[in-house]
Please model this.
Amino acid sequence: MKLLKIVTFCFLVTGGSLALASPETRETSQTDEKEPLKLPSFHNTRYEEDWSLLRGTSPGSSTAGPLKFIPLNQSGSVYLSLGGQGRTRFEGWNDFGFGGSGSRSDGFGLLRLRVHGDLVLGPYFRVFVEGKSALSTNRDLPGGLRTLDVDNADLQNVFVDLRIPFEKGSATLRFGRQELQFGRQRLISPLNWSNTRPRMFDGFRGSLKLGGWRLDGFHTKFVRVRKYAFNRNNSGTEFSGLYLTGRPGNKLAADVYWIHLDRERSVWNGVSGQEDRHTVGTRLGGALAETGLTFDVEGAFQFGDHGTRDIQAFMFASELGYSFTQAPGVPRVQLGFDWASGDEDSSDGEANTFNQLFPLGHAFLGFIDIVGRQNIMDLSGRFSISPRRPFTVRLDGHFFWRADPNDALYNAGGGVVLPGNPLLSRRVGSEVDFTFQYPINRHVVFTSGYSHFFPGAFVEESKSAKGIDFGYVMVQYTF
Model:
């Protein structure tokens, strides 16, 4: 009866026709239909969309609809663009978090609504406001209703842009509350998979676009979600950085970055202290000449201070893929390897656990989210095929080991799942993820999936544990 109520809730709140985002980083775009105009893709961060191409068209003449460009003066240089998104997801869990005391199996519904207005005041000024409401039915799992699940009604983005165009590019100064997303989202992401999109920052961002390159600089304070009150930036966490992105070749994309995290208090491998951490890294991805192979490689090194200890940590991530473009359904295979350092000795004056910062871990280290990019080694494989377009079937597999046996197993949120023990095995376990995605049209996407985690020797030696089962059905509508 409880399951029936939850499914009914999910159907009613969406009118039976909402759509969803993919659980990977490609969630930022959706399938285009044939349009009189080539319309922009819907972005994960909606403020990246530019609907000025509708200037001069009559309202409603495009299938984008009359809300995407509302002229407020005769020339159309001042206009308002409105948009939003509704998403609903039903999740079912069995043996959540490797068993133990309390309820570990449950099913519940999640609903999220986002609405935004983009006011463009000529070529130099812009005001962007986005609100959200994230709700959940009762969640009878450890943690109950979390800040990942519920944020009653709040402002997700509210900022002012000052834009300075010039001959070969532009500069933009941004002030206010904003989401940040860079690169493949391994380190900085709004975390769209979470019902509340909990990554918000108050502060300043400057962007310089020149040719095919873009340099972003930001200095912000992290905003914590308060489920039933207005969110504030009183977290004691400052987040700053420089991020350069561009295309060094026709089929290549590159990132170079420096990121600074300053937190009043954090705990690493059982040691507490103030954290002053710098991350420097680079990424290169794209196609390998005419081979048909694609690749993505990213590496980062961290240094600074954690209390009285010196920070020295690193991460490495790689992917190599191939699409059989001449075969029916265009099957694709991909291999990956990820490595994030752990701490060998908490008393040696060094903090060696990599800090994954604010990532979209869900896209890279298994959809169950029991593993995060900290003290971990992951060998992964993927197979996907579109036997009948536009739907896609995908199968992912992961094999996990702790990078250092003295350090803990951390989850996708950076929390400790099981403490480190050098006497136990490094082998954490393995995971399989099955995903089915069907973009019904430009606006509506249906996704469902099932995942299972097989405990390895480390988990079995640490506690009695069964495998974790996770299934979901998700629908999302974007306009």
Summary: The first strand starts at residue 70 and ends at 71.
